Amino acid sequence: MEIDVKDDETNQDFTTREALFYHETIRPGKIEIIASKPMATQRDLSLAYSPGVAAPVKAIAEDPSLAAKYTARSNLVAVISNGTAILGLGNLGALASKPVMEGKAVLFKRFADVDAIDLELDTEDPRAFIEAVALMGPSFGGINLEDIKAPECFIIEQELRERMNVPIMHDDQHGTAIITAAGLVNACHLTGRKLEDVKVVVNGAGAAAIACTALIKSMGVRHENVLMCDRSGVIFPGRDNVDQWKSAHAVETDRRTLEEALEGADIFLGLSAKDALKPEWVKDMADQPIIFAMANPDPEITPDAAKAVRPDAIVATGRSDYPNQVNNVLGFPFIFRGALDVQATTINEEMKIAAAHAIAELARRPVPEEVAAAYGINHQFGTDYIIPAPFDPRLIEVVSSAVAKAAMDSGVALAPIEDFDLYTHSLKARLNPTTAALTNIYSLAKANPGRMVFAEAEEEVALRAAIQFRDFGYGTPILVGRTEKVREKLVELAVDDPDSYIIENSYTSQHIEPMVEYLYKRLQRRGYTERDVRRMVNQERNVFAALLVALGHGDGMISGLTRTFSQTAREIARVLDPKPGAVPFGVHMMLGKNHTTFLADTTMNERPTARELAHIARETAAVARRMGHEPRVAFLSYSTFGNPSGQWLENIREAVAILDAEEPGFEYEGEMAPDAALNPKVMKLYPFSRLSGPANVLIMPGLQSANLSAKLLRELGGDATIGPMLIGSEKPVQIAPMTAIAPDILTLAVLASAGVLG
Ligand SMILES: NC(=O)C1=CN([C@@H]2O[C@H](COP(=O)(O)OP(=O)(O)OC[C@H]3O[C@@H](n4cnc5c(N)ncnc54)[C@H](OP(=O)(O)O)[C@@H]3O)[C@@H](O)[C@H]2O)C=CC1
Ligand SMILES: CC(=O)C(=O)O
Ligand SMILES: [Mg+2]
After folding, report:
1. Does the annotation mark 104 as catalytic?
2. Which GO terms describe its biological process (predicted)?
């Protein structure tokens, strides 16, 4: 379907068009399945499939518990919906719920390394639903039910819990309840309230509302202090249209409407629909009212509207673009992680309450500096930070281990953990901090939008990246190319308003004369006449683009698609210098499943001297730190600590000695071969080594080995690669590989614009 840009509703952070584009690009949707074992040779095939596969088949037939050992089941959760209550959008059917369920699957993976697959069942009949899920029991280690409306969700969950022997959780009920309870505990703590005393109004009487109410009551809130409303108003005994689940929360009262219910209330819990809470009703709530407007995607009231009438309110929503995101994403990944890790047979009340307390307690702890810097979490406990942010890397450790422990203590863990410290550590290691750091860098770029010169805007790949750079709010692209050609391409790519883009043509630009003057001054004693310089300005796009930056018409530039790296670098160097005292060099960042490794210098210095090696190590360590990694630097060689000896080791040793004299504030070691730097078993052979773990910054002895390694790893190793990233030029300049695609160029442009590359 073509996107109707006229109907391009703007949310706070993005437009409908951007959201659709996000789902459409790279490959449709948000998930793919990747094999976890080699599958290259005939032998691999024989082992993975017939005949080798018969061995685990027979083993599991004999002992079903072995499925956890020989299949992916024990880390596999199904996210199952029938689309009858998709967020707060209502019953839009099974198929339409797929983007949400794919999204939940991705969050499982991203936040807790749980493999998840979405299943959309085309039925509103609870019986059919139950049968379908129960029959799939052998497939999954856990079942996350999602976006199924009340009251069917209660029947479905209860029966499946009785029939199946794996953790089952209807996330909208219990995930939401756990996070809401955690947020409420903290909001009450901040306002000096006790759960036993608070007066609560719950708006909504569906899956989420009923479970939240039940949980907070089990934690101390008094039944008679909670008024629940649905579309017909307050639920009281004997009211029409009240089923058994709603009636459990009916209270004798003469209040009939939400407005009446809110008079003097301490807390509003909205689990209903957009705009259900009118600002004028908030006025009559108690002092320092607590307002959780959790309907998605649009809350019952926006924080701005609530604060306008009640500046003393603590406000939370389900969204990530306001402070205090009370959303079940803080719960389900970590709850299932803990449950799966001990092979829990269920998710019981003890596990839920443990999760709620762990989340609440985490928000009250100070955010460590490195977490704040790398993840952009700059709040400390207070009215705008009552609940941790989903990106907080401590969540997996704290919540999953609390859930695992509660499962063990309550006797539902089939595989109790013996060494809990080791377990907590292994939880942390499941997350790769780069993903979070990149997310933070992207928001940093958005907060300080720059002007990025795209030197090769006639190239479709560069132009697509430039369009996204602007559409996603990272800044203003300045497009270098022939005006008509670039304009035509913009039209072809269906941008909203091609004339709103800045196009700089090197033949007609108004900046040509000052450019010629500037460059002639630089080059007149290097064998160039003014005519040579003018020709260069007109004809060499990299020179022209770099001049735009040098003269202040852009903040940085990106190029590299049409010339080799070295030629592009040479052209730019005619205009821009390195930073004072810096040696420009290149870094490749290799992103593996659970590791990130920085390789340098992969682009510039053929035979770095000892001083240059030390400089490259220092600067690459700084880049690693800005990306959220504590650097462990290895100076690589064919030799490990003098074995074998050779004539090329001296400058590496001298580089290490230079750092020794400086005490640079990070771990470094060398000379060493890659296995001694990366393989813990080999590292044990060198107990005197100063590296406390496998190296994550590899300083290569020369350009040959560096560039070869980076390219070999990219082509054969399977790691995603970012780079080369150019470090050390006076202005942010990035040179993409000639084979780059639009997302690669966009990433480099954003990294340059955010100023994190140094
Ligand atoms: N922040 C978070 O983490 C989460 C938020 N939610 C949000 O909670 C909401 C409900 O979801 P869920 O419980 O799964 O859905 P359900 O369909 O089970 O329940 C919806 C409930 O909302 C009530 N409702 C709808 N509109 C209004 C209104 N204007 N005034 C009062 N009540 C209203 C319905 O009333 P009636 O019974 O009369 O039809 C029903 O009781 C959604 O907006 C969802 O996005 C849900 C889960 C997690
Ligand atoms: C967050 C969520 O699960 C919902 O709004 O339905
Ligand atoms: Mg949901």
Report:
1. yes
2. malate metabolic process
